[in-house]
Amino acid sequence: MQSxxxxxxxxxxxxxxxLCENPLPPIDEAIAAAQAEAPRGNYYTEPYSAPLRRLxxxxxxVPEPLVHINAGSELILRQLFDRLGDRVHLLTPTYALFxxxxxxxxxxxxxxxxxxxFDLAKLEVPHDTTLVVIVNPNNPSGxxxxxxxxxxxxxxxxxxAFLVDxxxxxxxxxxxxxxxERHGNLLVTRTLSKAHSLAGFRVGYAVLPSAPAPLPLxxxxxxxxxxxxxxxxxxxxxxxxxxxxxxWATAGWVRASCGSPRRGRRTMxxxxxxxxxxxxxxxxxxSWPSA
Length: 291
Ligand SMILES: Cc1ncc(COP(=O)(O)O)c(C=O)c1O
Hints:
Number of helices: 8
Bound molecules: pyridoxal-5'-phosphate
CATH topology: Aspartate Aminotransferase, domain 2
Number of strands: 9
């Protein structure tokens, strides 16, 4: 039986824009890699997702010990907020999770009349802020920030951690992950859920500094993404590796999907959609019963 149970109670099929799921399926290489690994599902997972960690370190050009993998970046974000979420500064509107899990929040509003753009060089960080969060590209406004001023911000506020949530960075923009090695107060999170279309596989990762304050992340008990003993690991790891290893295919696919509505229409499951009368921007299949 096919389950329609979705995150956030979105128990219907269709485009759930609030959840930011990619409507396109994973690339063929990722599906094939996951299928090939499925018969080994009897084995427990291994704690450190070593093969994927190595691959990500290589691809991102960061030292392997700085890469942390867990079951979706939301889990990593929650762990980071547990440690650093006392006084959080947000650029709003932002990802809905952050105001929910921060203990106290201050904000810099991104203004619609300026297209939600903001010059980070002008960011004023309130005294005693424990964590500044920059979502780049931003959710829900979709714009990218010029990250040029970031190193200066990091130097000016050495006691404040800066989290750059790059959940959507594979769709466009330059990651700041390589800066983590040089800045002990920069934390970068990313995910395979968006551009790689692997939300259901729950693979998120972070590039975190080792000094001055190492931030080893707790692992979950379920560890769906982690096993070393097999060359490619559990299906999540395999799918991720398959997707990353074919990154040029993925990049081309993203470009093709964004740039060509015809390919998008061909690739997307046939779904005639209409907007639900909701403030939460859900789009539901036309078969959705009227209220
Ligand atoms: C900005 C942002 N960060 C993080 C996440 C969490 O993604 P995941 O837990 O699937 O890695 C999302 C999901 O919508 C998001 O929009």
